[in-house]
Amino acid sequence: HQPPFYKRFHKVHHRFTAPTAISGLYVHPVEFVFESQLSVILGPILLKAHPWTACFWVSNAFLNTCASHSGYTFLGAEGHDAHHQYYNYNYGVGGMMDALLGTSFKESELGNRVEKKHK
């Protein structure tokens, strides 16, 4: 979500404020190559993973993208829905890094954040 990249590339993905599994794959072609493909296959290539391990890795990445954009309340999808609404929260999957970096968001905290902003 860095300004020069978000505006030119990632904003396409954020056209969906209430994402669905298939919309998780809707990205700018440049983002598709570098973020959706290269970042997924680079790990197994660099680690010289067994073909079955690489297949599992790629399948897991695909299913994770679909699950986190599913709109259902499992595997962190509700957190990613908030990310599509508010953009500056819930970047990761699972919430651990967001909690560590102060970018986690819960709907129940919305009132508190708005109050702090206007003080």
TrEMBL record:
Kindly indicate whether the keyword Transmembrane belongs to this entry. Answer: yes
GO CC terms for this protein? membrane
The GO biological-process annotations, alphabetized, read as: lipid biosynthetic process
- Domain (Fatty acid hydroxylase) spans 1-103
Keyword set includes Chaperone: no
Q: What is this protein called?
A: Fatty acid hydroxylase domain-containing protein
Organism superkingdom = Eukaryota
Q: Which GO-annotated molecular functions does the record name?
A: iron ion binding; oxidoreductase activity
- Keywords from the UniProt entry: Membrane, Transmembrane, Transmembrane helix
Identify one Pfam family in the record: FA_hydroxylase
- Localization (cell): Membrane
